[in-house]
Amino acid sequence: MAIPNKIIIITAPSGAGKTSITQHLMRVFPQLAFSVSAATRQARGSEKNGVDYHFMSTEEFKQKIQQNEFAEWEMVYEGKYYGTLKSELQRIWDAGKIPILDIDVKGAIHVKQQYPESAISLFIVPPSVDALKTRLESRGTETPESLAARVNKAAYEISFKDQFDEQIVNDTLEHACSEAERIIGAFIER
To answer: Into how many domains does the chain fold?
Structure first.
């Protein structure tokens, strides 16, 4: 029997490659639809509301928490909230597609706990914390302080990897994408 209302959860420490792998999976599997997260931060560059994030005020976000409108939410950084709206998952299911979530580690654990039978969770593991630090440095977007904070957070997040259905070491993006494709292909067929 097919699993109704499937969910695919992709998580990783910042810089480990989850967004690149998510984008690859969406190109390969047309039945997937990207779940747009809600966020209280300001849009950056060319980001569009409803496409990249559902941007909202902290007050609006907290109101939605009180009304139980999130499948998961976290204060990822001080004063910056991110979350997955239940209405976003329902929008994708109503369109006959499978939501793919590219979210932080704690949020991923919460979604998997809420949808244990219908969700698969993939944890993208960097080859090492040093390799992750090098990737983040190469982006050129971090101050020394923010880089240190992200690396420390990544080491902490990696400690949760065993709570996920599958772990993929992103030693090369090509290998990680291929492994993710194999796992998700089998999940979609179930």
So the answer is: 1
